[in-house]
Amino acid sequence: MIVRILTEGQLRVPDTAIDELNTLDEKVLETCQAKDEAAFRTALDTLVTRVREIGEPLPLDEIVESDFVLPMADATLEEVEAMMSDEGLIPG
């Protein structure tokens, strides 16, 4: 699957990571709903860091449709809330 991190680029992430990423995404969603800024910052950092760890960056000249888009690592709670659906940042 292809994941875009805003302002950073796209990464190819193994499909087998979807359950792990959904778990991390759920934590981001929960912290947004709770308006817990400190927990949100940790949850978003954990999600973005994990995608960077397991993902392989795509060449900048390769344009591929992203399966989902993550906010930039320094996004605010309000910015992330605006990007979220009822399922969080990562659909289904």
Structural class comes to alpha+beta
* Count of the domains: 1
- The SSE order reads EEHHEEH
Number of strands: 4
Please list the strands of the largest sheet in the order they lie side by side: 3-2-1-4
Q: State the helicity in percent bands.
A: 40-55%
- N/C terminus separation: 13 Å
Q: Given the C-alpha coordinates, what overall shape results?
A: globular
Query: Stretches where pLDDT falls below 50 for ≥5 residues?
Result: none
- Give the strand content: 5-15%
SS field, number of helical segments: 3
Topology summary:
Layout lengths: L1 E4 L3 E4 L5 H17 L2 H18 L1 E2 L10 E3 L6 H7 L9
Parallel strand pairs: 1-4
Antiparallel strand pairs: 1-2, 2-3
Protein name: PspA-associated domain-containing protein
Explain this structure to me?
The chain has 92 residues and is α+β, with helices and mostly antiparallel strands. It has one domain (2-83). Helix content is 46%, strand content 14%. The protein contains 3 helices and 4 strands. A 4-stranded mixed β-sheet has the order 3-2-1-4, with helices on one face. Strand 1 and strand 2 (9-12) form a beta hairpin. Helix 1 (18-34) runs antiparallel to helix 2 (37-54). The protein is globular. It starts with a strand and ends in a 9-residue tail after the last helix.
